[in-house]
Design a protein that fits this description.
The protein is an alpha+beta fold. It has helices at about 5-15, 25-30, 35-75, 80-95, 125, 135-145, 165-170, 205-235, 240-265, 270-280, 295-300, 335-375, 380-390, 415-440, 460-475, 495-515, 530-535, 540-560, 565-570, 575-585, 590-600, 610-634, and strands spanning about 100-105, 110-120, 130, 150, 175-185, 185-195, 285-290, 305, 310-315, 320-325, 400-405, 440-445, 450-455, 480-485, 520-525.
Length: about 625
């Protein structure tokens, strides 16, 4: 094994950053290695990076799935129904990132509904709430057996509002609420809720995820009822021993299956690994498919027989994700049917966890950036720890970028304009979040657009980064995306107060691009001439002078010429060469030669109105700086 291959193993062993994998290739090239050796080394680098990515993915999946499969494990070893329901509500609140989660159950004897478990609630009135059947958002969910979500509870007229419910909801401070049914077969026995104290849009994946937890809760209640019936039969019937053994066998077998599946998935297994494990337990062949199972979906989550096969739908929140098909076991007893059904439930959780992993990371990146913008006085050590978990280089200089989608304004009668604008913001946030994750930065939705905090690459400027970001986001969305950039912020986590200041500068630059009719472009203050000088929070007068007339000043210093003086006289004379030669006491041909030289240094458009104004301002600032410098030297 070559030394370079050993280097890649060492990098993998210590979990080095992606950039470190370029070093062996660079060293080999510097040492004069031949093309074949370099090609072999490049191939080894790509293989090492793939291994690294796989290891990172496995670690992430293990962390994300542990909470989900802990619930499945709780159900398999069910002893205390209240403890299992509390764990389900706690994990639902954590994975959906809501402030409150709660579960209500129907009371057929009293003819109403009551709160069974709450998590994150602070109102005693809300925790003790009992409401009549068919009232509130929960009543709508129970009546239709479908999930319902409201962005603003008090402005939603789809369900029946009552003083009791509205008072309790107002006391708790809830605004956005998502409710999914707890169903046993076709019967709705309660509702599982997730809620926030601020306006919020729940996505389809989040609805499906909460629906999966509701299915777990229903299974827990079903299992608890089964245990209660077993204990009752033990006291009443002589054959209770057979019933107890039968139901105990169901529970023990389910526990064994779920223990095995939990261990398999937590160690990096996938959907097809789950199918192989269930195949061994059931003594047949189980395969996962992404299509079919129409009859299984209609069976309400139960395994059904199709010919010589058994099928169980893999679904969550009403969304069909696929099917588990068991071959080779036409005569399946009820215990094995339940095993196949629970395997389908575990498979749906696995698929949803992978889908939600990317959204969870996007949400965490947005929360960190929001904290930098809104609460810069937070503990900096904790901010750096959060950034490290997201693999963000907190020591590198960063640029704050404000981005928005620019499309032609819709007419007043266009009722879809608001919906399109909301969709544009969502698509922009999604694309920006992906870009931030790729560049090890942060992104968040803000002020009708998106804000990004991205590190600068070696030799890269804020203006270049703004143009690249506008091009990348515009290409992804196939819309014009305008991006304004701030000046670089060095070590933003060490100076979090500067991030909000830089965001203000980026927003002003974004607004200036709109006023200048430069939609779909990216720019920093340095691209906007003297307008940028006014917009920037740091008044870089020297930089403005250098960018505008620096080449002319440098030419005079090298050659001992008087191009700067000629420019001053030219503008003072109303841009007339004849009057300029009188002012300078030189021949008109000399003036023409100097102006030609100036044109080669500044570009052919230097006499256009906008360029001429910037050049005159730069000349005044240059003269002022020289005068101040001479005064200080004397």
């Amino acid at each position: 094994m070559s030394h370079e291959h050993v280097s890649y193993l060492e990098l993998l062993a210590r979990g080095a950053a992606t950039e470190a994998y370029d070093r062996p290739v660079l060293l080999a090239r510097a040492s004069g290695a031949g093309p074949e050796a370099l090609a072999e080394l490049e191939e080894a680098k790509q293989l090492a990076l793939r291994v690294r990515a796989e290891l990172e993915g496995r670690r992430r999946r293990e962390a994300e799935l542990s909470a989900l499969f802990a619930t499945a494990h709780d159900l398999a070893g069910l002893r205390d129904l209240d403890a299992v329901l509390r764990a389900i509500v706690q994990r639902a609140r954590s994975l959906l990132g809501t402030e409150v989660a709660y579960l209500s159950l129907n009371d057929p004897a009293a003819g109403d509904t009551y709160m069974r478990v709450t998590e994150g609630s602070v109102s005693a009135r809300f925790q003790q709430l009992r409401l009549g059947m068919g009232e509130g958002l929960g009543g709508l969910v129970a009546q239709t057996a479908r999930p319902y979500v409201t962005d603003d509870y008090f402005d939603d007229a789809r369900f029946q509002h009552t003083r009791t419910i509205d008072t309790a909801v107002r006391d708790e401070g809830l605004v956005a609420i998502l409710g999914v049914p707890l169903s046993l077969g076709s019967q709705v026995i309660g509702v599982l809720f997730a809620a926030d104290r601020r306006a919020r849009v729940f996505g389809r994946e989040q609805v499906a995820l909460l629906g999966s937890f509701a299915a777990h809760a229903a299974v827990a209640i079903d299992t608890a009822n089964l245990l209660a019936e077993t204990r009752s039969a033990l006291a009443e019937l002589e054959r209770a021993n057979d019933i107890i053994r039968e139901h105990s066998g169901v529970i023990e077998r389910a526990s064994e299956v779920h223990d095995r599946l939990s261990e398999l998935v937590l160690h990096g297994g996938g959907v097809h690994d789950v199918a192989r494990a269930v195949s061994e337990v059931l003594g047949g062949t189980v395969e996962f498919t992404e299509t079919g199972a129409g009859s299984a979906r209609r069976a309400g989550g139960h395994a059904v027989r199709e010919g010589d096969d058994w099928v169980a739908a893999v679904s969550a929140g009403g969304e069909a994700l696929g099917t588990l098909v068991l071959h080779g076991r036409p005569d399946l007893d009820p215990v094995d049917q339940r095993t196949l059904e629970r395997a389908a439930l575990v498979t749906s959780l696995l698929l949803l966890a992978r889908r939600s992993a990317g959204e969870a990371e996007q949400r965490v990146r947005g929360e960190l950036l929001d904290d930098l913008l809104d609460a810069p006085d937070r503990d900096r050590r904790l901010l750096r720890e959060r950034a490290a978990r997201l693999r963000t280089d907190s020591e590198a200089p960063h640029v704050v970028l404000a981005a928005r989608v620019d499309r032609a304004a819709a007419g007043a009668a266009d009722t879809d304009a608001g919906r399109r604008e909301s969709a544009d913001r969502q698509r922009l946030w999604s694309a920006a979040s992906h870009l931030a994750a790729t560049r090890h930065g942060l992104a968040s939705a803000r002020d009708g657009g998106t804000v990004l905090l991205l590190p600068l690459g070696p030799g890269e400027t804020a203006a270049e980064l703004a143009r690249q970001t506008a091009k990348s986001l515009g290409g992804t969305l196939r819309e014009e995306v305008t991006v304004g950039a701030s000046a670089p912020v060095r070590a933003p986590l060490d100076h979090p107060d500067q991030v909000a200041v830089a965001y203000g500068e980026a927003r002003r630059c974004l607004d200036a691009l709109g006023l200048l009719h430069r939609s779909g472009q990216g720019a920093a203050a340095e691209d906007l001439g003297f307008l940028g000088l006014l917009l920037a929070d740091s008044r870089d007068i020297g930089g403005f002078v250098d960018r505008t007339v620096g080449q002319v000043v440098a030419y005079d210093r090298r050659r001992g010429t008087e191009l700067v003086r000629t420019l001053d006289a030219y503008f003072a004379s109303g841009m007339s060469p004849a009057r300029t030669k009188d002012e300078l006491h030189v021949h008109v041909n000399t003036v023409a030669q100097r102006l030609e030289r100036i044109g080669r240094l500044l570009g052919p458009d230097w006499q256009s109105p906008s360029r001429a104004l910037e050049i005159q301002l730069a000349l005044r600032l240059h003269a002022l700086a020289d005068a101040v410098g001479r005064k200080r030297r004397t």
